[in-house]
Amino acid sequence: MKRKSYSQSLADLKSRGIRLTPQRQVILQYLKETEAHPTAEQVYQKIGEQFPGISLATVYNTLNMLKELGVIRELSYGDVSSRYDGNDSEHAHLVCEHCGQVLDIATPPEEAVITQNIQQAGFTVSSYRLEYYGTCGSCVQSTPYQKDHAS
């Protein structure tokens, strides 16, 4: 599935009868047009530039609503703040264990993820989340230990 654009997502939500205030629209647009995976606080700061009176509660409520409607994804990483992903297509993530950066990458073929063992167990997969943890290129370059042991 290809990533839906802001205008496609907006049209989909309108066709489903969802009320879209200007604040909801700008939050949706920001998430659909960024490659970043911002926290709710980062969304609040960014949207606050356009809507100075917006509350953090409105941002959280909108993010939750968009997540429940399947338009965005929430990425939880234990005790760290959740991040939000406007890319609604199937894809995997690279997560840097040093700086926390999250990057999208193409998902391996379904056969590599949904193995024969899963099928033999009689399990039907409805969705999955694939993440790789390690060190991003910027952290490798800036960390002397990593440079010495990168090979």
UniProtKB/TrEMBL annotation:
GO terms for molecular function: DNA-binding transcription factor activity; transcription cis-regulatory region binding; zinc ion binding. Zn(2+) binds at C96, C99, C136, C139. The keyword Zinc applies. Binds 1 Mn(2+) or Fe(2+) ion per subunit. Binds 1 zinc ion per subunit. Fe cation binds at E111. Keywords: DNA-binding, Iron, Metal-binding, Repressor, Transcription, Transcription regulation, Zinc. Its cofactor is Mn(2+); Fe(2+); Zn(2+). Belongs to the Fur family. PANTHER family: FERRIC UPTAKE REGULATION PROTEIN, ZINC UPTAKE REGULATION PROTEIN. This is Transcriptional repressor.
